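2024-03-11 09:14:02 DEBUG pipeline.ingest accepted 1 chain
2024-03-11 09:14:02 DEBUG pipeline.ingest length=194
2024-03-11 09:14:03 DEBUG pipeline.predict start
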Amino acid sequence: MDDIETNWDQAFTVDFDLINGLSGTKNSTKRKLSQMKNMFSDTGACKAVLEKDDPVIYEFYELGAPENSGDLAFGTSITYPGKVGNEYYMTKGHFHSILETAEVYYCLSGKGYMLLENPEGDWKLEELTPGKVVYVPQRYAHRSINTGKEPFITFFTFRADAGHDYKTIETKGYRKIVVEENGVPVVRDNPKWD
């Protein structure tokens, strides 16, 4: 597929399939397990999976919005079903570089949760199913977690100059993780948190 160039100074349309979240005219960024191996709490289970395969955990569309305060960045995020050990597949998650930036996610299909956490340690877990919107307030890191059997697909938008701070999450993780116990999602303390 050729990535069609977008002119942000004019009106334009972009296609996103409501079932699979994919675009026929834009290229996505894919995150494989090897790129996220430190995000999962069970390093032994992660190593065992990587010895056999390097699955795509999630993908998303960055449409290249100019980083101006008056522009909006938007796209879809597709988190695939699966687990590493008993921990569900998830996105890396991020703070915004401009911490005082909110974001909105609208669930198109699948089901899962948005894990939110601010620098002071307040955290929340919001369930998302098709038709539900989660408002991510300023100062909260956020991560999508797929607890279903189908791809968990959300549409997102935020101010284009907000930036992404992945490094804080890569070094510290989140205080909480979501794992499957007895067939249901359960929140646990992250054993890697310090």
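2024-03-11 09:14:41 DEBUG pipeline.report The chain has three helices and 13 strands.
2024-03-11 09:14:41 DEBUG pipeline.predict end
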